[in-house]
Each structure stands twice: as structure tokens, then as C-alpha cells.
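Throughout our pipeline, every protein is held as a single compact record rather than as scattered files. The remainder of this section carries one protein's record, kept here as part of the documentation.

===
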Amino acid sequence: MEKKFLSLVVSLLLVISLLPAAFAQVGGGVDIEIDPEAEAPHIWLCDSSVIIEGNSNVGRATPSGSDLVNRENNYAFEGEGMAWNLLVEDSNGIENIEDVTVTVGDTFGDGNDVVADCQQSPAPAPGTPLPESCNAVDGEEDFDEFNIDTMDFYDCTFTVPSASQMEEEVFVSLEVVDSDGLAEITDEAEFWFLNPEVGVSLSESSIEFEDASPGTFTYSDTFTVMNDAEEGSGVQLDMFVSGSDFFSSDGGACPDSNVLRLYDEGTLVDEHPSGIFYTATSGAYGTDDEVGEAIVDRTGASAPTDRFVDDEGYVNIGYATIFERPGFYDGFEIIKTADDVDRLDTTAFSPGNFLSPGADIALTFLLALPEPCTGSFDDGQILFWGEPV
């Protein structure tokens, strides 16, 4: 019996050793496919958009390439730039980003016309806290730190083309598209008026001083100068006035030639310089606020003349028949108020001199007519100018 038992044990051991080989010959494999869900990228505007001064028609306070800090409303002109800084995130990997662009269109949403490509800006170190201005939130997920594998910053600049190409109100959006064709735009799409028409209108086409007596003062009727910029544009205008001497069309003399000087401090009327003067009011501001202020030298215009203000707030008119930069910023404003700014600082705006669309400045003219003076003086001009802020 002992021999048979041992034989049985050996047989069992042999059977057990054959089992793995038998399974290997008849078994099969199972393929595993892992296909991560393609998620749309995210895009956030960091801080706010800025407007950049163009190379032509450079304004009072902003050299070319600098921010137009005085621009309060959403309008822009040819050559001016709009700039944004963006944070882009793609959980499928930042290399999945295909395009980041600026688009414009008549409606809010994706699919509008691409007008500029955005460029990647230098990436911060991994783990750098994200700027709070980006407000990088997606639903309940709050992104706090920069992830070099899934994030990038982009700089975008769109320069406004000529009015022949683009003169309209448009939505300006910032859009990201990934390689799967999934897109997203920033929540802060903006509505801009590009190349709006700008104009100045007068309530009267002419100012007449009828029956003016030599050696006396004659006042005109009050009239208004209005900002006539395109409706809905929001364009604010900085207002200016200039003029020329007036010549006689019938051989007159005032006092000793055929010219009535626009301003003549050498020929007096009752101890007042002769010529044409004006007083102006706009809201709480007026030229009477200038009485007793420092004299401003109009040094940049074609015919320099000091800005003279008499005791009643009547101001002389500076000589110029074309708009000159920077000369007009040196005393040619219709109203040049202090209001916490240095009147002698040509880069400083006078708040009383701004006009919003549809707003106006009321003016009354004073003629200090020298003696003797005869004839009609109708060959000359007084000009009003408005420069967008």
C-alpha cells in the first residue's frame, strides 16, 4: 500500500504542474481603450482693456504708444490701439491650444471676424499665484496658481483701421480655439464705436455787431457751440477757439488802415485793449473763473498773443486759422479753468472745456471798437475746434 500511495501523490503533482500550460494555450487578451473627454479651453481677461495713442494726431497729454488715460468712453479712431492681457487654460494640455484671437462682429458670441492674433507672453514660474484681476474661476473650480502644463498668458493688440474699412459699432471679443475645434470667448466682450464721425455745430452762422460806435463796447447775442459727434459714440471734445484779423471790403479804416485787429493791446478803448473778445460758460465753469489768474502765453501758434482776461471774464481770441499741436494747448481753450490743475501746464485738461455729445458752451462776444473807425469789416473769421479726448 505504501508504494501505491506514493505513486498517487506523484501523479497529482504532475497534473497540477500541467494546469498553467493548458490555460496559456487556450486563453485570450482584452484590449483597453482610454479616451479622455475633450474639454473646451478657458479664457479670462486679466485687468481691463487699455487704449493706446496712435502715431498720427497725437493728443494733448499722451505721446504716441502711451495709454489714453483720459479716454472715458468706448470709442477709438484710426491708428489707435486696443490692448488686453489674457490667461488661457486647457485641461487637455496647453499644447492643445490652436489660436487666441481678437474678433469683431455685430453680435455677441463666437464666430465673428478675426482681426488680430494674440501672442504668448513670458510664462511665470510654476506655482506662481495668478493675478486676482484674472478672476480665473470655472464654475466651482477656482484656479489660484500658474500651471505650466495647462496655462499660458497672451497679449493681444488690435489697431483700428481706416474709416473706409471699419466705421461702425461692433462687439470686440477675445476668443480661444483648441485643436479639437472647441472655442470659448471672454465673458467681458466689449462694445466699441470705431471711427465715429466728429463735428461741431453753431447755433448761429454769423455774429453781427450792428450800429457799433467807434470808441465804445458792443455786445453780441449769446449763441452756443455744440459737440455734434455721431449719436451714441460718446466722443468727448476738448474745445478751442481762434481767429484772424478782419479786413474792410469797402475801403474802410479802423483806426488808420483797412484792418480791424482781432486783438490790439496798443490801441485802447476806455483803457481796454481793442478787438473782439468773448465770455463763455459751460455748466459750473466759465471764463469769469479766470479773472485774476496767471496770464498764459500762447507761444506755439502762428501769431503768438498772450491770453488776456478782463475784469468781466472776457477773453481775447488767439491768432490761428489751422489747428496747431502743441500750440493750441497753450491758451487756445475756450474755457481754461484751474480746478486743481496748473493752468500753465499744457498737458493738463481743463474740465470746464470738455463737451459730451449734444452738450454745448454758451458764448457772448464783445467788440471794443477803436476810434476812428469807418466801413464794413467782413473779411475775416473766428473758428471753433473740437479735439477728441
